[in-house]
Specification:
Helix content is 20%, strand content 45%. It has three helices and twelve strands; from the N terminus they run ααββββββββββββα. It has an eight-stranded antiparallel barrel. A hairpin with a 2-residue loop joins strand 6 and strand 7. It is globular, with a radius of gyration of 19 Å. It starts with a helix and ends with a helix.
Length: 236
């Protein structure tokens, strides 16, 4: 009997959970792939770097050969927050929450010839986290690469690929998927009103790698969930 890549992936996850961190994830059930989309709204600024002069333009073009950085404005600058303004499918419980990026998004190059910085092998790069309001659990979206970035003083379009995870319930249930993350904005002077749309995408034959990545995120998200629960109990 031929076993699908997805089933192999689930078996690998359970084996790794048992070997690596049973005390942390014993209450988590791996329950398949995410369906749906989530949308954030907020503000962001592309900061001056060695690729931009004081006008935001260098001799090689808008994004040139330097390092470009998108910071998320707000009380936790450069991390945000951004408001979760839309959600469909499995993301609906996150609606009304706020999302925080762990890192600013940095890249080199322009157009479709771009390289995402701050990416750790097997872990990924910048990611957002959004807790589920009034319950244990959260959603996460992680960048692994950029497909294209175009921007000027008054507009921005950034398209990336990565993964997304959703953990919720009691006992906790983990769902996961590859994801397309698109950031668009309009504004002036390189400060934009942003929309961030994360869309779960169907499995494309790389289930084993995605599930292995999901395991790393699973442990991290469980740690975050425990912190959220502790904080809620403290102020209860």
């Amino acid at each position: 009997m031929k076993i699908s890549k997805f089933l192999w992936s689930v078996l690998v996850v359970f084996a790794a959970v048992a070997l690596i961190a049973p005390q942390q994830v014993e209450a988590i059930v791996v329950d398949g792939r995410i369906n749906g989309q989530t949308m954030f709204a907020g503000s962001g600024t592309i900061t001056e770097s060695n690729g931009l002069n004081s006008s935001g333009i260098n001799s090689d073009g808008v994004s040139g050969s330097g390092i470009n950085e998108l910071d998320f404005n707000g009380q936790n600058f450069p991390h945000g927050p951004l408001s979760v303004t839309g959600a469909t499918g499995d993301f609906i419980p996150v609606l009304g929450s706020q999302a925080i990026f762990n890192l600013a998004i940095r890249w080199t190059g322009s157009g479709s010839s771009v390289t995402l910085l701050d990416v750790l092998p097997g872990v990924g790069g910048p990611h957002w986290d959004a807790p589920i309001v009034g319950a244990n659990g959260s959603a996460t979206g992680t960048f692994f690469s950029l497909k294209s970035v175009t921007f000027d003083e008054d507009s921005l379009t950034l398209i990336g690929m990565g993964t997304t995870q959703l953990i919720s319930g009691d006992p906790l249930v983990l769902k996961h998927s590859a994801a397309r993350i698109v950031i668009q904005g309009t504004g002036q002077d390189f400060t934009y009103n942003l929309t961030v749309v994360t869309t779960a995408v169907p499995e494309g034959g790389s289930g084993l790698g995605l599930l292995a990545i999901g395991l790393v995120g699973l442990v991290a998200v469980e740690g975050l969930r425990r912190k959220i629960a502790t904080r809620q109990n403290r102020y209860a």
